[in-house]
């Protein structure tokens, strides 16, 4: 076995009649966990986008395959240029993302007590694209390369088939190459919202971006003058439907959410996390900025002035 494990894993039977590739014959890896560990692991994995398109059975195999990793301040979990060994989900801790720019390591972002990293080298068989360093003591859950490949990378082929046609018709992504659009599909998560469900809340910290796949969303803003007697009443300022995006403003401007967004009817959205957004949608930012500059005009048209909405 080419993979190293911090604790000896138990191997369970791996036969799955639906599978058709060589790595299906790799034994299924199970790292036994206490109830308490499993609960913490499930919490940490709840919002991991890469797991959002797995079925129940695949997700539980992923959980079985994960092992706990405790890290110390300044520890490098990943070094840029290395071969990929594991994928990591963050349970707690703050981690710097460091990229060599002209030979000098620059901190280009952070993970703050949530998220995941280390998928790129495993997905594309490339050297590690960044260094990840713990800022403080922390806890991670690792998933070995072979299991990641068997469960996540194989699922990507299905994801590409499922979302290719849709992604092709998203106006924002028109300027990207096909291969770049497919890399977006590889890392998107899919979320379904109930009628009336709040997707994001004005004033919250932002860590992802959305594209509507089906259904519709309503964008609401707290207006001081329109609020009347009731205090913080929300007014509708826009809607988004299939192919349109929202949640970019906070990421582009590095500010809290400027509005709240609610599902109208059952609504399906593709979700992209902020690191993937920075990495893959950099070239789309100009288009977003142009559209953002229109927001202010629309605001004036709607309310006569934009001042009452500013905090
Ligand atoms: P990996 O297997 O290449 C390093 O190992 C990980 O850092 C990588 O997977 C991603 O999960 C994570 N560019 C490349 N990798 C990044 C980036 C990133 N951010 C996080 N990772 N950029 C920063 C975006 C904020 C672009 C930098 C130019
Ligand atoms: P966000 O990350 O700030 C809320 O989270 C999202 O609502 C925001 O990104 C935008 O995608 C969207 N017009 C259209 N869409 C808006 C507006 C807006 N504000 C936020 N979003 N404005 C003009 C109103 C006619 C308000 C500008 C402040």
Report on the structure:
The chain is an alpha+beta fold and 311 residues long. It is built from eight helices and 16 strands. Strands 11, 12, 13, 14, 15 and 16 form a six-stranded antiparallel sheet that branches. Strand 6 and strand 7 form a beta hairpin. The protein is globular and about 60 Å long. Bound molecules: ligand 1OR (2 copies). The site of one ligand 1OR has 18 residues, from strand 6, strand 7, helix 3 and helix 7.
Number of helices: 8
Instruction: Give the percentage of residues in beta strands.
Output: 25-35%
Low-confidence stretches: 1-5, 11-20
Record field, number of beta strands: 16
Query: What molecules are bound to this protein?
Result: ligand 1OR
What pattern of helices and strands is seen along the backbone? Answer: EEHHEEEEEEHEEHHEEEEEHEHH
3D shape: globular
Largest sheet: 6 strands, antiparallel
Overall average residue pLDDT: 90
Question: Kindly, what is the distance between the CA atoms of the first and last residues, rounded to a whole number of angstroms?
Answer: 58 Å
Helix content: 25-40%
Which structural category fits the helices and strands? alpha+beta
Radius of gyration: 21 Å
């Amino acid at each position: 076995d080419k993979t190293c494990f911090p604790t000896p894993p138990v191997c369970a039977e791996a036969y799955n009649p639906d599978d058709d590739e060589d790595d299906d014959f790799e034994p299924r890896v199970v790292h036994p966990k206490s109830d308490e560990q499993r609960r913490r692991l499930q919490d940490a994995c709840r919002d991991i986008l890469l797991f959002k398109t797995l079925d129940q059975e695949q997700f539980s195999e992923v959980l079985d395959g994960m092992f706990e990793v405790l890290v110390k301040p300044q520890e490098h979990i990943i070094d840029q240029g290395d071969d990929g060994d594991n994928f990591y989900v963050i349970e707690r801790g703050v981690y710097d993302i460091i990229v060599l720019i002209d030979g000098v390591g620059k901190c280009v972002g952070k993970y703050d007590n949530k998220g995941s990293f280390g998928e790129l080298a495993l997905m594309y068989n490339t050297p590690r694209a960044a260094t990840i360093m713990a800022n403080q003591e922390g806890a991670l859950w690792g998933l070995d390369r072979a299991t990641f490949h068997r469960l996540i990378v194989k699922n990507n082929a299905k994801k590409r088939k499922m979302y290719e046609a849709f992604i092709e018709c998203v106006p924002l992504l028109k300027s990207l190459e096909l291969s770049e659009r497919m890399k977006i599909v590889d890392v998107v998560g899919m979320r379904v919202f109930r009628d009336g469900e709040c997707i994001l809340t004005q004033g919250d910290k932002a860590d992802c971006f959305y594209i509507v796949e089906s259904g519709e969303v309503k964008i609401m803003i707290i207006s001081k003058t329109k609020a009347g007697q009731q205090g913080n009443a929300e007014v509708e300022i826009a809607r988004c439907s299939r192919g349109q995006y929202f949640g970019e403003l906070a990421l582009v401007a590095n500010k809290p959410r400027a509005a709240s967004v609610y599902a109208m009817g059952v609504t399906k959205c593709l979700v992209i996390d902020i690191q993937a957004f920075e990495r893959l949608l950099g070239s789309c930012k100009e288009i977003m900025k142009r559209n953002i500059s229109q927001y202010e005009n629309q605001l004036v048209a709607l309310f006569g002035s934009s001042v009452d909405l500013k905090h």
